[in-house]
Specification:
Elements: H1 3-83, H2 87-169, H3 173-185, E1 191-195, E2 198-199, H4 208-216, E3 221-222, E4 229-232
Parallel strand pairs: 1-4
Antiparallel strand pairs: 1-2, 3-4
Length: about 230
């Protein structure tokens, strides 16, 4: 195999590593966003549970206030009963008090329903709090792991980039330009094997003179169909 081909194969390996590292680095913000979404989701569920509990309590207090205002009216009516001397007025006041007491009973029944609803909401809130806390702890650890991963990737990239620069400097300029163009346009497969007379890039059988040139290993030989640089598979 030509020394130039051997150099390009090593260079291609480093370029593939760099491409993979860049892809992993590009995915990191998406992973972080997904983690943040999970935390926000459990936080929203907890807030929704607490909001429902607050709404129940507000309604209960409103009913409590309604009961209070009606009891005040009953007190006033009772005072009027003591002061009236007419039987008709007395009976009318008594009837009004009875009506209000029925209203109070209905309101108090609704209060009990709300109190039951509030009791049912408590374990829901507790479960949501537990889930939110567990998710937060898990995501916090995942953030730390992701940060460490990003630092590791960046360190690897610097190392591979330095090695890649050294390798590229040893390749003839025109050949390097050809290789780089192929690497970018041929899905990171610039240099491929010729296996059983078939180019492993485009999977087309090569012409006889190309096969002989590749096997001879005296000049850099491209595939006539896809342009990739060929090397003989041992």
């Amino acid at each position: 195999m030509l020394p130039a081909i051997s150099q390009l194969l090593v260079l291609q390996d480093r370029d593939k590593k760099l491409r993979q590292l860049k892809l992993e680095l590009k995915r990191a913000p998406l992973e972080r966003k997904d983690m943040e979404s999970r935390t926000a989701g459990t936080g929203s569920a907890l807030e929704a549970a607490k909001l429902k509990a607050r709404e129940i309590e507000v309604k209960r207090k409103e009913l409590e206030s309604e009961v209070g205002s009606r009891r005040t009216r009953i007190q006033k009516y009772n005072q009027q009963k003591l002061e009236t001397k007419k039987n008709e007025e007395y009976q009318a006041i008594t009837h009004a008090i009875g009506t209000i007491e029925k209203e109070i009973t209905g309101i108090e029944d609704r209060e009990l329903e709300l109190m039951e609803a509030a009791d049912k909401q408590k374990p829901i809130i507790a479960a949501a709090e537990k889930e939110a806390a567990a998710t937060k702890a898990q995501v916090t650890q995942q953030f730390a792991d992701l940060d460490a991963k990003v630092k590791s990737i960046e360190a690897q990239m610097l190392e591979v980039q330095a090695e890649r620069a050294k390798l590229a400097a040893e390749v003839e300029e025109d050949l390097l330009d050809t290789y780089q163009r192929l690497f970018e346009t041929k899905d990171a497969q610039a240099v491929v094997a010729l296996t059983n007379e078939i180019c492993q890039g485009c999977h087309v059988k090569s012409q006889t003179h190309v096969i002989h040139a590749v096997k001879a290993g005296k000049v850099v030989t491209p595939c006539l169909y896809c342009g990739r640089i060929l090397y003989p598979e041992n």
